[in-house]
Amino acid sequence: MNTGNSCDAVMASQTASEFKKSFICAGDQLHEAMLGSPLSVLVYAFGVLLVMGLVHRASSGSRRKSGKKE
Q1: DSSP character for 66?
Q2: Which of 7, 23, 37, 69 has the fewest CB within 10 Å, making it most exposed?
């Protein structure tokens, strides 16, 4: 079973550039921070509900009665 992360794998690589190594390791650190914080789940749920509400509001038609235009 492989227990290492992608940062360890790319750091062992001789052909990867320094930019690629720092980018992959930063992504791994961000992933670990997201898994360890319950706040990220709440922010994600709020974002989903916000987008769902905006889509619902945009898809519902005008509720005004069509009256005579002057």
Answers
A1: -
A2: 69
**Which residue range(s) make up the domain with 16?**
6-59
d(CA 49, CA 47): 5
Within-domain flag for 69: no
Provide the number of structural domains found in the chain: 1
pTM (predicted TM-score): 0.52
Closest C-alpha among 4, 6, 31 to residue 21: 6
10 with 24: CB under 8 angstroms?
yes
